[in-house]
Amino acid sequence: MANSANRPRSYDPAKVRSALAGQTEALRGAVHELCAHPDAASLFDRPTRLGDWRVRQLIAHLGFCLDWLPRHLDEPVPDGAPLSLVQWVGATRTAAAAIDAAVREHAEGAFAGSPAEVAEEFDLACDQLLAALERPEVADPARRFVIRFGPILLTDFLVTRLVETVVHADDLAAALELAAFPHDRQALAAVTRLLADAFADQVPGGAVELRIPPYAVVQAVPGPRHTRGTPPNVVETDPLTWLRLATGRTTWSAVADTALHASGERSNLAEYLPVMG
Predict the structure, then answer these.
(1) Strands 233-237 and 208-212: what pairing?
(2) Please, which pLDDT band fits residue 267 given cuts at 50, 70 and 90?
(3) With CB atoms 3.0 to 4.6 Å apart as the test, which of 53, 127, 181, 211 could cross-link to 236 if both were Cys?
(4) Over the chain, what is the mean pLDDT?
(5) Peptide bond into 47 cis (omega under 30)
(6) What's the CA gap between 268 and 275, in Å, rounded?
(7) H or E segment at 218?
(8) Which residues of 64-93 are buried (b: 16+ CB within 10 A; e: fewer)?
């Protein structure tokens, strides 16, 4: 489905809730398997591709992301236009220090215990989120919610939770050297599309068409250098490679020969990556 920054994509609230529930259960299964491992304590200390975060910090961050909705659902929402999802992607670049501090506190507090205690704490976060998703106000497409960047439509906020759970599930799989992570298909699709839309919004023209089958096709808004009728610059890759490129988990040069198909004189997107901080 093609999309551009001029036509913001809409997300079906029921499908978003279902995808988030599915991805949450997939994460729960992965964390339980990790915590039941005979070497779980040492696995918790494995490095991740997130700076100096270890697996324990990554799990704490996932728990923090999951229980944000139930912890803040009843808070008042300030006035102001809701933040769009593409705006949220761009705003994440400003939050790294605050997130790091919160995650370290979480990892040294609620997630500081034994593997069994970590599994129990993660279960609590999962259960609280799933219960919140059943509340009637969460199904209201006009319901707004407050985040660190301002108000946002609640359904859009749930899409941000899909980003967090899909991207960090991939981080967890990499840290634990898993062959693959069983992402919820709709969750992976939504995140792929959002990060593709954010790319289209951020590229200053150039008529680059980004194809990520089977989930997304977007075209950057043509700039003044684009001439009608000229062949498009096309880049095609798979969803997980795109997520890693868009979030800085890998680089263009690292995957250019193995996981990308690019054509056109302006099809190298390295200068526009990552899309999300």
Answers:
(1) parallel
(2) confident
(3) 211
(4) 91
(5) no
(6) 14
(7) strand 216-219
(8) bbbbbbbeebeeeeeeeebbbbbbbbbbbe
CA separation for the pair 22, 127 (Å, rounded): 12
The β-bridge relationship of strands 144-147 and 150-153 is antiparallel
- In the chain, count of helices (H) and strands (E)? 11, 7
Print burial letters for 132-157: b (CB count within 10 Å at least 16), e (below 16).
Answer: bbeeeebeeeebbbbbeebbbbbbbb
Question: What does DSSP assign to residue 214?
Answer: T
pLDDT at residue number 229: 52
Give the Cα separation of 257 and 240 in Å (integer): 16
- Residue 20 has a pLDDT of 98
pTM of the model: 0.93
- Give the position of tokens 């808070």: 75
* CA–CA distance, 69 with 230 (Å, rounded to integer): 47
Q: What is the pLDDT of residue 230?
A: 54
What residue type is 87 in one-letter code?
A: Q
Give residue 4's identity as a one-letter amino acid code. Answer: S
CB proximity list for 42: less than 8 A, separation 6 or greater: none
